[in-house]
């Protein structure tokens, strides 16, 4: 209730008459802008007013606060109710005296802003509802604020609530909304921009400010950096108030961290210095039936690189070479078999499934009987290496029996190939090691040799997905990297915040952004692992925009359908393959609609590799103890269980091997499709790879819903090396097949002629076209942090990627390296 000057227009007269009824009017000169002093009655205390044309303003006085605080001194007031006082401004000098104030109610006033120089160190509850406040940027001045009430301020939206959460970490609720739900949104938006902001800084600003930023240049650098960010395509889509706020906040944080050099930790070299360790190489040519890398490499090959933005200058480069030497075992623990799961395994239970054989009769899989000595020996030797560093678990032992044409049971199910003869495949060019990059360290440490780089795959060209760019994606630990093979630069790097995550697999797809306008395309990268869900990443901005949840245990393999680029298959430890439609994302806000279409079952085993054959319209799954196939003629009516089980041939007698696992089932850890109908598989412990014609292996008629077992006739056997390490994956590119091993070597097979001749059946063992040996390494100034690369020879090549032109081979290793090999310009 206010006393008004009588010169104010009649609009205010009802209020004036009401005031007269209360206590009368004392006018001291009535013009607009003049002061009208309050009168005091027994029930009301009137504030000094400033009268303007259409506005009544009221300033807060110390007397009003004392009155509302029951006469206590300002420094002793703990709770203060100043609601409905028609307040418009707050005096920081008065408010800052409320040092013990815990609860403040300013609701139902006309306050437009909270001065940023007001500091209330003890305030826990703040009610500013029903005012005209447009900003909540005052939160840092109230360090203990837990409850904030802002309803009725029409200029405040969701973005302001998010800003308040960021500004004041002690907030637990805003109005009736818990802070936890808002924090989740904050984390998502922050992660959306944080990596890109850091990458932008490292590329454009890190080198000029490698030694820090002077105090008088901080503001200028911040403005320049922000201007650079706003011109980026991703940040042009930062339309919301909070996204712009977060972008500015991250930019300021980055500048401050560069100012005090905290952006660079002790394990990294500063920008502007060479980050490469090099290879030294002395080659002694060998005359063997297999072509070896015998050419003397040219100087200036850059080999061991941590993530960098500029390739090293030639003056810092050391020549590289390759040496054929006797391989020595790695340190204890490496070279053993491993598993992905983190708990010791146990022998699997016999499957109760029945399978239809060639004759149409049903048979049940059974375990073959062994003597106790044989069983003990197998258990001791049949251990697989783990995905993590925990002790090895026991391998599943599962030997199946199948009914032969005579009706008798035979075990094991495969047929051995006898009396093979040696021959050669067509040659392939030599490859030179160019960059060995260690970029998957969880703590960014160059000494981390425990993280395993599990998979790598080249990015397809958006305008022609059948060809590749020079960028390869790699996964290992919590990190996804995009590496440029031409320069060795880590172009982008995504680190997952989920403590459970460790990536095992990835897959690329190229999708049309507009179904009606098919000219605009973009690449999407799917990654998955220990967290049991599939994450979709837009690689050009490195934004993880969707999470596909459906598996119960870790995911081992991913594959997109070549003809339907939004159809994704994911295979996991839960013995399931899930078919997804990932949808088409809206790149303005990364919203998308994805669906789980079908769940397929791999009976009694988990899939390790997936491949899709267009010529036979089928899905293949290489599993822990077999190979399954589903027909994809009608993907809406897929059988849950596989249509076929492919019985691969045993390529050698394992009875004399160290593991004595002749009765154990094969782990199909390698499976790739060649052009037309041909498939190449790799089984753990076999000394040969198997190439076969898939189309001729599929019966013309598939009857019933039960899985039918068929024997595979090999087109060719490819000489390999017997290894006890599992999860060594194959790669293929237009007839070139590549396979790593547990000694750091890469085996190359040129199968173009076999594919062109459409060979039908052959039990000949064909020698490799070329073997690339692990090079000798000289580390220079990285000797202390990466000395294991020199002392350890038994490097496991987990996976390989080959680009469409065969110019580059990229492999991921067990000791945290991404190794880039380039086709030699000199024919050898």
UniProtKB/TrEMBL annotation:
<keyword id="KW-0779">Telomere</keyword>
<dbReference type="InterPro" id="IPR015943">
    <property type="entry name" value="WD40/YVTN_repeat-like_dom_sf"/>
</dbReference>
<feature type="compositionally biased region" description="Polar residues">
    <location>
        <begin position="281"/>
        <end position="297"/>
    </location>
</feature>
<feature type="domain" description="Leucine-rich repeat and WD repeat-containing protein 1 WD">
    <location>
        <begin position="431"/>
        <end position="823"/>
    </location>
</feature>
<keyword id="KW-0137">Centromere</keyword>
<dbReference type="Pfam" id="PF23211">
    <property type="entry name" value="LRR_LRWD1"/>
</dbReference>
<dbReference type="GO" id="GO:0005664">
    <property type="term" value="C:nuclear origin of replication recognition complex"/>
</dbReference>
<feature type="region of interest" description="Disordered">
    <location>
        <begin position="266"/>
        <end position="421"/>
    </location>
</feature>
<feature type="repeat" description="WD">
    <location>
        <begin position="548"/>
        <end position="582"/>
    </location>
</feature>
<dbReference type="Pfam" id="PF23215">
    <property type="entry name" value="WD_LRWD1"/>
</dbReference>
<dbReference type="GO" id="GO:0000781">
    <property type="term" value="C:chromosome, telomeric region"/>
</dbReference>
<keyword id="KW-0206">Cytoskeleton</keyword>
<keyword id="KW-0963">Cytoplasm</keyword>
<dbReference type="GO" id="GO:0006325">
    <property type="term" value="P:chromatin organization"/>
</dbReference>
<dbReference type="InterPro" id="IPR003591">
    <property type="entry name" value="Leu-rich_rpt_typical-subtyp"/>
</dbReference>
<dbReference type="GO" id="GO:0071169">
    <property type="term" value="P:establishment of protein localization to chromatin"/>
</dbReference>
<dbReference type="GO" id="GO:0006260">
    <property type="term" value="P:DNA replication"/>
</dbReference>
<keyword id="KW-0433">Leucine-rich repeat</keyword>
<dbReference type="InterPro" id="IPR019775">
    <property type="entry name" value="WD40_repeat_CS"/>
</dbReference>
<dbReference type="GO" id="GO:0003682">
    <property type="term" value="F:chromatin binding"/>
</dbReference>
<comment type="similarity">
    <text>Belongs to the LRWD1 family.</text>
</comment>
<dbReference type="InterPro" id="IPR056160">
    <property type="entry name" value="WD_LRWD1"/>
</dbReference>
<keyword id="KW-0156">Chromatin regulator</keyword>
<dbReference type="GO" id="GO:0005813">
    <property type="term" value="C:centrosome"/>
</dbReference>
<dbReference type="InterPro" id="IPR036322">
    <property type="entry name" value="WD40_repeat_dom_sf"/>
</dbReference>
<keyword id="KW-0158">Chromosome</keyword>
<keyword id="KW-0235">DNA replication</keyword>
<dbReference type="InterPro" id="IPR001680">
    <property type="entry name" value="WD40_rpt"/>
</dbReference>
<dbReference type="InterPro" id="IPR001611">
    <property type="entry name" value="Leu-rich_rpt"/>
</dbReference>
<dbReference type="GO" id="GO:0000776">
    <property type="term" value="C:kinetochore"/>
</dbReference>
<keyword id="KW-0677">Repeat</keyword>
<feature type="compositionally biased region" description="Basic and acidic residues">
    <location>
        <begin position="324"/>
        <end position="335"/>
    </location>
</feature>
<feature type="compositionally biased region" description="Polar residues">
    <location>
        <begin position="360"/>
        <end position="379"/>
    </location>
</feature>
<feature type="domain" description="Leucine-rich repeat and WD repeat-containing protein 1 LRR">
    <location>
        <begin position="73"/>
        <end position="235"/>
    </location>
</feature>
<dbReference type="InterPro" id="IPR032675">
    <property type="entry name" value="LRR_dom_sf"/>
</dbReference>
<protein>
    <recommendedName>
        <fullName>Leucine-rich repeat and WD repeat-containing protein 1</fullName>
    </recommendedName>
</protein>
<feature type="compositionally biased region" description="Low complexity">
    <location>
        <begin position="343"/>
        <end position="354"/>
    </location>
</feature>
<feature type="compositionally biased region" description="Polar residues">
    <location>
        <begin position="404"/>
        <end position="418"/>
    </location>
</feature>
<keyword id="KW-0539">Nucleus</keyword>
<keyword id="KW-0853">WD repeat</keyword>
<keyword id="KW-0995">Kinetochore</keyword>
<dbReference type="InterPro" id="IPR052489">
    <property type="entry name" value="LRWD1"/>
</dbReference>
């Amino acid at each position: 209730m206010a006393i008004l000057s009588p010169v104010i227009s009649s609009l205010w007269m009802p209020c004036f008459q009401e005031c007269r009824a209360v206590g009368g009017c004392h006018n001291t000169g009535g013009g607009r802008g003049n002061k009208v002093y309050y009168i005091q009655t027994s029930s009301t205390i009137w504030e000094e007013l400033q009268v303007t044309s259409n506005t009544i303003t009221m300033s807060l006085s110390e007397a009003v606060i004392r009155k509302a605080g029951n006469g206590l001194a300002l420094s002793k007031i703990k709770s203060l109710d100043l609601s409905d006082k028609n307040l418009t401004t707050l005096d920081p000098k008065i408010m800052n005296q409320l040092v013990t104030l815990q609860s403040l109610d300013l609701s139902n006033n006309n306050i437009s802003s909270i001065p940023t120089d007001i500091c209330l160190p003890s305030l826990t509850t703040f009610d500013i509802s029903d005012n005209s406040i447009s900003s909540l940027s005052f939160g840092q001045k109230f360090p203990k604020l837990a409850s904030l009430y802002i309803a009725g301020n029409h200029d405040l939206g969701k973005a302001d609530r998010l800003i308040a959460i960021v500004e004041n970490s002690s907030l637990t609720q805003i109005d009736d909304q818990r802070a936890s739900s808002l924090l989740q949104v904050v984390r998502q938006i922050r992660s959306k921009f944080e990596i890109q902001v850091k990458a932008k800084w490292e590329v454009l600003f890190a080198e000029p400010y490698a030694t820090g930023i002077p105090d008088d240049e901080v503001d200028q650098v911040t403005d320049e950096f922000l201007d650079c960010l706003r011109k980026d395509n991703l940040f042009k889509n930062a339309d919301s108030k909070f996204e712009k706020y977060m972008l500015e906040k991250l930019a300021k944080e980055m500048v401050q961290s560069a100012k005090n050099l905290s952006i660079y930790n002790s394990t990294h070299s500063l920008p502007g210095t060479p980050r490469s360790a090099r290879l030294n190489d002395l080659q002694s040519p060998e005359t063997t039936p297999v072509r070896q890398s015998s050419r003397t490499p040219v100087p200036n090959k850059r080999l061991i690189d941590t993530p960098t933005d500029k390739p090293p200058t030639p003056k810092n480069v050391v020549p590289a070479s390759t040496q054929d030497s006797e391989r020595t075992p790695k340190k204890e623990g490496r070279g053993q078999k491993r598993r992905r799961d983190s708990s010791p395994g146990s022998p699997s239970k016999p499957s109760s499934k029945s399978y239809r054989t060639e004759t149409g009769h049903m048979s049940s899989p059974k375990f073959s009987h062994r003597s106790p000595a044989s069983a003990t020996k197998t258990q001791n030797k049949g251990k697989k290496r783990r995905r993590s560093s925990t002790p090895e678990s026991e391998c599943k032992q599962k030997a199946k029996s199948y009914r032969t044409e005579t009706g008798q049971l035979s075990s094991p199910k495969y047929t051995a190939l006898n009396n093979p003869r040696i021959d050669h495949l067509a040659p392939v060019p030599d490859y030179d090691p160019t960059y060995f990059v260690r970029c998957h360290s969880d703590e960014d440490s160059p000494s981390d040799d425990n993280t395993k780089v599990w998979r790598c795959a080249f990015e397809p060209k958006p305008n022609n997905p059948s060809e590749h760019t020079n960028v390869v994606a790699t996964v290992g630990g919590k990190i996804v990297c995009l590496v440029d093979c031409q320069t060795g630069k880590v172009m982008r790097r995504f680190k997952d915040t989920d403590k459970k995550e460790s990536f095992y697999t990835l897959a690329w797809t190229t999708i049309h952004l507009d179904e009606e306008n098919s000219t605009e395309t973009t690449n999407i990268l799917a990654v998955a692992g220990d967290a049991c869900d599939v994450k979709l990443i837009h690689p050009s901005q490195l934004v993880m925009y969707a999470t596909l949840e459906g598996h119960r245990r870790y995911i081992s393999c991913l594959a997109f359908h070549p003809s339907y680029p939004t159809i994704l298959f994911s295979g996991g430890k839960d013995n399931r393959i899930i078919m997804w439609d990932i949808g088409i994302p809206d790149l303005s806000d990364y919203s998308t609609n994805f669906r789980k279409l079908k769940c397929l079952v791999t009976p009694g085993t988990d899939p390790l590799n997936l491949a899709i054959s267009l010529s036979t319209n089928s899905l293949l799954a290489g599993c822990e103890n077999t190979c399954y196939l589903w027909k994809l003629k009608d993907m809406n009516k897929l059988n849950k269980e596989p249509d076929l089980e492919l019985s691969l041939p045993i390529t050698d007698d394992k009875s004399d091997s160290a593991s004595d696992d002749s009765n154990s089932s094969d782990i199909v850890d390698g499976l790739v499709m060649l052009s037309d109908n041909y498939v190449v598989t790799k089984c753990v412990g076999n000394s040969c790879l198997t190439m076969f014609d898939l189309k001729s292996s599929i019966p013309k008629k598939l009857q019933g819903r039960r899985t039918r077992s068929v024997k595979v006739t090999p087109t060719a056997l490819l000489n390999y090396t017997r290894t006890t390490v599992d999860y060594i994956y194959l790669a293929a590119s237009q007839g070139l097949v590549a396979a790593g091993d547990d000694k750091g070597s890469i085996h190359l097979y040129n199968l173009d002629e076999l594919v062109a001749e459409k060979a039908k059946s052959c039990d000949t063992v064909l020698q490799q076209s070329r073997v690339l040996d692990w090079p000798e390494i000289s580390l220079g100034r990285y000797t202390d942090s990466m000395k294991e690369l020199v002392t350890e020879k038994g490097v496991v090549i987990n996976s390989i990627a080959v680009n469409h032109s065969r110019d580059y081979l990229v492999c991921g290793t067990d000791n945290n390296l991404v190794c880039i090999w380039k086709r030699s310009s000199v024919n050898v």
